[in-house]
Amino acid sequence: MGVAVTQAVVISAGQLMARVRDGAETVVLEVGRDSDAEYLEGHVPGAHAVVLGRDLFGRRTDASGNGPLPDPAELQERLRGWGVDHDSTVVVYSRENPAVATRAWWTLRWAGVTGAHYLEGGLQAWEEIGGALDTVVPTPGEGSVVVRAGSLPVLSPEEAARIAVSGHLLDARGTAAYLGDPQLPRVGHIPGAHSVPGSGNFADGRLLEAESLRDLYSAYLDGREIGAYCGSGVSATTTVLALAQLGIEVALFPGSWSQWITDPSRPSTTGDRPGVYPS
């Protein structure tokens, strides 16, 4: 596999604080899953509020799954409103769930914002080093970024099925979702997919060190193509981020399981073994 991104993908709270202290131009985004209510109570100074479902998902259809890709033109308008230029350093963070921020990081990188970084440890890490919080909502920016959709690889359902056979398709959901229940329809996992829960990429809210990440994914680092999916294309972005830290490119299946099961002809299997994708 090739290198996912040449720029660093993670930034520490200390590095962010140094940029703020030195006046280095930085766009900061606080990402919430469904609301910006907590953001209004206090956030990293200068941070813009981003709501994942409202701002970074596209319009759902009967076949799209729960987290479709955004319309590039609409995304470009939002990015410009947050003050993003083509060469901006953008730092995204969340309060509790790292996957919310990693999906935002992934979306920006997919859109060609190569300076997008994930804040290690999120808001908690910022507060732990004495970072102040602010309740001031910044005015809309006047960014000039041009979205280049497709700057990171994505998978359609058919491509995910192909990788389940010829490469490594990793399921980032929790173990229970992967196992499924043989008595229930449309549960379980894509045949051939391996269970590697996205939560395992973190310890105490922090991304594992590179050596530990390499150990976690060692069975899949044989040079074959790697794809990742989850329930709605959110948790799987932690897999993309983790392997990007190792310089390894992973293709995301954005529709993930929620899109897979929209077509009853697509196979599924249950249990703790990957199974074999039917020929």
TrEMBL record:
Query: Keywords assigned by UniProt?
Result: Repeat, Transferase
Give the top-rank taxon of the lineage listed in the UniProt record for this protein: Bacteria
**Rhodanese domain ranges (all copies):** 22-135, 168-269
What CDD domains does its record include? TST_Repeat_1 (cd01448)
The reply to whether Transferase figures as a keyword in the UniProt entry is yes
* Annotated catalysed reactions: thiosulfate + hydrogen cyanide = thiocyanate + sulfite + 2 H(+)
State whether keyword Lipid biosynthesis applies. no
Task: State its Enzyme Commission number(s).
Answer: 2.8.1.1
- What is the name of this protein? thiosulfate sulfurtransferase
Q: Which organism is it from?
A: Kribbella aluminosa
